Amino acid sequence: MDRIAGIINLDHEQDVLDELTYFRCSAAVPFAGRYRMIDFTISNMSNSRIESIAVFARRKYRSLMDHLEQGKAWDLDRKRGGLFILPPDWNDPTDISKGDLQHFHNNIDFITRTLADYVVVSGTQNICNINFREVLEEHKASGADVTVVYKKVEELYPEHKRAHKLTIDESGRVTDIHNDQRSNNVYMDMYILEKNYLYGMIEDCIAHGCSHFFLDGIKARLPQIHMHAYEYEGAHALINSVESYYRHSASLLNGANHDDLFKEEAPIFTKVKNEPPTKYSQDSNVTNTLVANGCVIDGQVEDSILFRGVKVAKGAVIKNSIIMQRCEIDSNAVLENVILDKDCRISNSRTLIGVPEKPYVVAKRVSM
């Protein structure tokens, strides 16, 4: 069996989720009741039997490090291989690299020392459940230098405006990478290539003063290289705005959408926290809601997502909202189309109302 190493490149992921990324990078943003966005990428790699994974982190990664720890939740706390969180190293006076090529250059030992034959590089803003072994098999069969992953979306949303799109010929070869707003072939910020080919491209990019490995090293060389496109057909959510985060979170309240993403044969793992089951009082009324463990609910909740340890007092009403860990909603408070970050408290009889197109967002540890 071919060995694969994984690189999760956060360098070019912008912190565009407003209050949700004040204190953390987007990869560490909570999602779906008990997960972080990066959990999906790491779980996809772990389920694909990738045993050595590097995370290229540049800024606001304290929360990320606290969540990932040694990688135990993904069976990556091992003597050989495992999970590596790698900030850029600024101590090499001879280093002329810039951009994300600083990560590739300063952590080149991760690439050269791995026993893997191939490397998967991925971001975290495309939420999905993908088997990278299937991508590898198609990559080998096509004889390509690089294979990129894309999703053919049925409907274009505002978040797709920022995404790169692909033009693909009948053989599956990529002939152009662009930002055509009419194209529905959305590049998912994932690609696979041979380890030695990756190493050579890194050296060449740095020698030519490049700063973005994919754009300068791969996209710019498209006429000279063979790039194959792998079509991913499963559940997919591109999250690069508060609006897309809110909409895709709400879509998980549909059982079919939830089951398409959270597959029994390919589970999504996260950091384990031992908490009691949720307590529902006789006065509670909860409908069509994802509720994590450790909550205490005495009020009314509908069409919402509650993370671990949320407390909803008697008389409180929550609708179409996302309430993160350890938030407290006091009696007679009303929340509708609201996102509360962790450790917030909403006082008695307070009313917060947003709209689906622009939910009301409250930053971490705010009391109102």
From TrEMBL:
What keywords appear on the UniProt entry? Glycogen biosynthesis, Nucleotidyltransferase, Transferase
Q: What InterPro entries is this protein classified in? A: ADP-Glc_PPase, GlgDAde_trans, GlmU/GlgC-like_hexapep, NTP_transferase_dom, Nucleotide-diphossugar_trans, Trimer_LpxA-like_sf
Gene3D superfamilies (alphabetical): Hexapeptide repeat proteins, Spore Coat Polysaccharide Biosynthesis Protein SpsA, Chain A
Keyword Isomerase annotated: no
Say if the entry is tagged with keyword ATP-binding: no
Q: Which Pfam families match?
A: Hexapep_GlmU, NTP_transferase
Q: Which residues form the Glucose-1-phosphate adenylyltransferase/Bifunctional protein GlmU-like C-terminal hexapeptide domain?
A: 282-355
- Write out the GO MF terms: nucleotidyltransferase activity
Which intervals hold domain Nucleotidyl transferase? Answer: 19-155
Regarding protein family, the annotation reads: Belongs to the bacterial/plant glucose-1-phosphate adenylyltransferase family.
This protein is called: Glucose-1-phosphate adenylyltransferase subunit GlgD
Biological source species: Thalassobacillus devorans
Per UniProt, what is the name of the gene that codes for the protein in this document? glgD
